[in-house]
UniProtKB/TrEMBL annotation:
Residues of the TRAP C4-dicarboxylate transport system permease DctM subunit domain: 7-418
Protein name, per record: TRAP transporter large permease protein
Lineage: Bacteria, Pseudomonadati, Pseudomonadota, Alphaproteobacteria, Rhodobacterales
Chain segments annotated as transmembrane: 6-34, 54-74, 135-158, 170-193, 214-236, 242-266, 278-298, 304-326, 333-349, 355-382, 394-422
Function statement: Part of the tripartite ATP-independent periplasmic (TRAP) transport system.
Pfam family, one: DctM
Any one GO molecular function term: transmembrane transporter activity
Record's subunit section: The complex comprises the extracytoplasmic solute receptor protein and the two transmembrane proteins.
Organism in which the protein naturally occurs: Boseongicola aestuarii
Membership in a protein family: Belongs to the TRAP transporter large permease family.
NCBIfam families, per the entry: dctM (TIGR00786)
């Protein structure tokens, strides 16, 4: 049955069928071929139970928050401000790509939205200032992945919902690894551009007065992040309520900078509906698929297979890492999460690992999937914003950052406190 699911998933995805529909079709196939009783009779209940959760209401709120910030012009001003603060480093404006992605990750909760935001703003600067297109675009694709690590993260919300794990604890656990990855990306760019200065374009130093004036465009994002996360950890709001507070704050910021209009509002709502519908179709489809897989006995089959390998806990987790890296080449990231979590997480907990720690490790591996071909979504988003050059340039440019992510995954395995320090300290 494991072979059937893997081959069926890849075959259907190769036909360009929407991911959510693929998951339903696989569920129907398992019902017909592997189940002794009609599981389809539970479809209605599964659809209702998978979507009837107050936790999931946070998803459209966080998507709307990011849409407002992007469409109101806040992204352009933030990018220009960070340009004045980080372009003196080896690599110049490439660091502004990473820094802007980091700041928007702290509000949007979506990697694809973050990558699209930064790419739209940054790409016109690359050719004008003579930057290497590979490194410049690769940094945007990699920086965008931080949107699912740095809180608030839509993927962490989905992980918490599926595993019944504390979302505030997951948000705390993702903070140090997320910031660590952002700093590691900056260091990687600086090293590459120190060895090969021509890749980084011109290093620019701005007067201190200009740098200080630019802070006015950074403070709104910082305040918005503080308001969202602070309200959660002070006990003033749940993650869902904090998301609503964030949307209100985004409206205030857009209005303060003259970006609030009826057109902006309608485009933001339309974008939110599209993205949320896609996410919910995947979540519901995966819930039905997991229901059929569990009913048909895949969990026991997989458990018996892994137990038969006689692996130690460390060996087991390394096998899981390899599995996610390989699957990430072929399966869209949210789908990969929701399909595997109900099967893998119980086995991980049986091995004695903390589910919060594993959630962060999984997110790092999912981030790698966003920038590894052939299905890396951020690669296509950045290439679409470029409108010139080849996809291979974006892939090559993202490769050093994928190596950084792999190193972070091994660091989390060797030093779990990287993820667990904040949740345990503030528990």
């Amino acid at each position: 049955m494991i072979t059937y699911v893997a081959v069926g998933l890849l075959a259907l995805l190769s036909m360009s069928i929407p991911v959510g529909i693929v998951l339903f079709l696989l569920g129907f196939g398992i019902d017909w071929f592997f189940s002794s009783f009609p599981l389809i009779r539970g479809l209605g209940n599964m659809v209702w139970s998978a979507s009837n959760s107050a936790t999931l209401i946070a998803i459209p709120f966080f998507v709307l928050l990011g849409e407002i910030l992007v469409r109101s012009g806040v992204a352009t001003r933030t990018y220009a401000a960070l340009d004045r603060w980080v372009s003196w480093l080896p690599g110049g404006l490439v660091h502004a790509n990473v820094a802007t992605a980091t700041m928007f990750s702290a509000t949007s909760g979506s990697s694809v939205a973050t990558a699209a935001t930064v790419a739209t703003v940054a790409m016109p600067q690359a050719e004008k200032l003579g930057y290497d297109p590979k490194l410049f675009s690769g940094a945007i694709a990699a920086g965008g992945t931080l949107g699912i690590m740095i809180p608030p993260s839509i993927n962490l919300i989905v992980y918490g919902f599926l595993t019944q794990t504390s979302i505030p604890q997951l948000f705390l656990a993702g903070l140090i690894p997320g910031i660590g990855l952002a700093l590691a990306f900056i260091v990687m760019v600086a090293i590459i551009c120190t060895i090969k200065p021509h890749l980084g374009g011109e290093r620019r130093v701005f007067p201190l007065a200009d740098m200080m004036r630019a802070l006015v465009h950074l403070l709104p994002i910082i305040l918005l992040f503080t308001m969202i996360i602070g309200s959660i950890y002070n006990g003033w709001a749940t993650p869902t309520e904090a998301a609503a507070v964030g949307v209100a704050g985004a409206f205030v910021i857009a209005g303060a900078f003259g970006g609030l209009s009826f057109k902006m509002l309608t485009e933001s709502i339309y974008g939110t509906v599209k993205i949320t519908s896609m996410i919910m179709l995947v979540v519901i489809g995966a819930s039905f698929l997991n229901f059929t897989l569990a009913s048909a006995g895949l969990g026991q089959e997989l458990d018996a297979f892994l137990s038969g390998l006689g692996l130690s806990p460390l060996g087991f987790i390394l096998v899981v890492v390899v599995m996610y890296i390989v699957l990430g080449f072929f399966i869209e990231t949210l789908s990969l999460m929701v399909v595997t979590i109900p099967i893998i997480v119980p086995l991980v907990i049986e091995q004695g690992y903390d589910p919060i720690w594993f959630g962060i490790l999984m997110i790092v591996l999912i981030e790698m999937a966003l920038i590894t071909p052939p299905v890396g979504l951020n690669l296509y988003v950045v290439q679409g914003a470029r409108q010139s050059g080849s996809m291979s340039e974006v892939m090559l440019g993202a490769l050093p950052f994928a190596i950084v992510m792999l190193l972070m995954a091994f660091a989390l395995i060797a030093f779990p406190q990287i993820a667990l320090f904040l949740p345990q300290a503030l528990n």
